Amino acid sequence: MARSHNPVSRFGLWAVFVILAVLPLILRGYQLRLVTEVIIFSLYAVSYNLLLGYAGLLSFGHAMFFGTGAFAVAILLEHFAGLPLLLAVTLATAFTTATGFVVGCLLLRVKGTPFALLTLAFNALFYAIAVKWSSLTGGDDGLIIDPPQLDLWLLTLDPNKGPDFYYLSLAILGPVILFCWYFTYTAMGRTVLLMRENEDRMRFLGYNTLLARLSLFTLTAGLAGLAGSIYSLFFAFVSIDAISIETTTTVLLMTFIGGTGHFAGPILGAGVFIYLQNFLSELTENWPLIMGVLFILMVLFTPGGLVGIIKGAAQWTASRRKTPDLRKGAKNRHAHSGS
Amino acid sequence: MILEIKDLHTYYGASHILQSVDLVLDQGELVCLLGRNGVGKSTTLKSIIGLVPPRKGSVLFNGIQLAGLDPYRIARLGVGFVPEERRIFKGLTVLENLQIGIKKAHSQTDREPWNAETIFEMFTKLGERSLQKGGHLSGGEQQMLTVARTLMGNPELILVDEPTEGLAPLVADSVLKMLGTISDSGVTILMVEQNYKAALKLARGFYIMSKGQMVFHGTGEELVAAEKIRQKYLEV
Question: Any idea which fold A27-291 has?
Answer without folding.
Answer: ABC transporter involved in vitamin B12 uptake, BtuC (1.10.3470)
